[in-house]
Amino acid sequence: MINLAADIAAMAAALGLVAGGPVLLYTIMFGGICLSGVVFVSYGAFARVLKWGTLVLLVYVATAFVVRVPLRGLIAGSFVPTIRLNGGYMTALMAVLGTTISPYLLFWQASQEVEEQNAAPGEQPLRRTPRQATTQLRPMRADTYLGMSASNLIAYFIVLDTGTLLHAHGITQIDTATQAAEALRPIGGEFAFLLFGIGIIGTGLLAVPVLAGSVGYALAELGSWPHGLS
After folding, report:
1. Measured torsion, CA atoms of residues 100, 106, 110, 111, in degrees rounded to the nearest 10
2. Separation in Å, CA 119 to CA 17, 60, 115, 116, 195
3. Burial letters for 101-133: b for 16+ Cβ neighbours within 10 Å, e otherwise?
4. Is residue 83 in some structural domain?
5. One digit per residue, pLDDT tens: the chain, 230 residues?
6. Is residue 159 part of a domain?
């Protein structure tokens, strides 16, 4: 619930930075959009929206090409890690690990595969038709490899953007994503600020349905209630 509130508030604050206007109204609007999508849109349509919505993450890649990245430092920092045994480094390391193997992802992915199976003509649970194991597991494995590779690539560019634009200019105290976007404006220019702000909104629209859906799946399965995005 805290993550959901933080994501929705971050989207609203980012839109307030980019377009101006009342942040509270934007908060209610984004909450309504996410809730309506999860409740009223069929799983097939909703999944297509989320898949195409991931393209917004490319704005973090575009930001790196908009600003000047020192190539020598980029290559050295990418392939030769610098490990520091201090509180800040360990906090960042735990944050990366925590967001990579979060329990909600396990709930969401397992339940999502059941939704995919129900939507696919001819597919049955593997305990009933074990001969379908190869056919069903191969795309799941490919989907997981592709998704994790893409997410790590985007994370790399987010680190690259903030390191090049913020840390290199002495800006090291950033508490929210919107503060990062605002700090980019005088350093990276209006276009970099706009790209990063759009990225915050797009990322939130992807994350909130997954967070909320995973909680819904877990609670519904625990109570043996009818459930599913369809």
Report:
1. -110
2. 40, 33, 6, 5, 36
3. eeebeebbeebbeebbeeeeeeeeeeeeeeeee
4. yes
5. 888 888 898 899 889 888 888 989 999 999 999 888 888 887 778 778 878 888 888 888 888 887 777 777 788 888 887 888 888 889 888 887 777 666 666 777 777 778 777 777 778 888 888 888 888 788 888 988 988 898 889 888 888 887 887 777 787 777 777 777 777 777 767 777 787 788 888 888 888 888 888 888 888 888 999 887 77
6. yes
Sequence letter at residue 91: T
Q: How far is Cα 97 from Cα 105, in angstroms, rounded to an integer?
A: 13
Range of the domain at 105: 2-117+147-222
| Nearest one of 20, 86, 184 to 94, comparing CA atoms | 86
Residue 132 included in any domain: no
Residue with tokens 């992807």: 206
Closest-CA residue to 50 (of 41, 60, 59): 41
Inside any domain, residue 137: no
Structural domains of the chain, count: 1
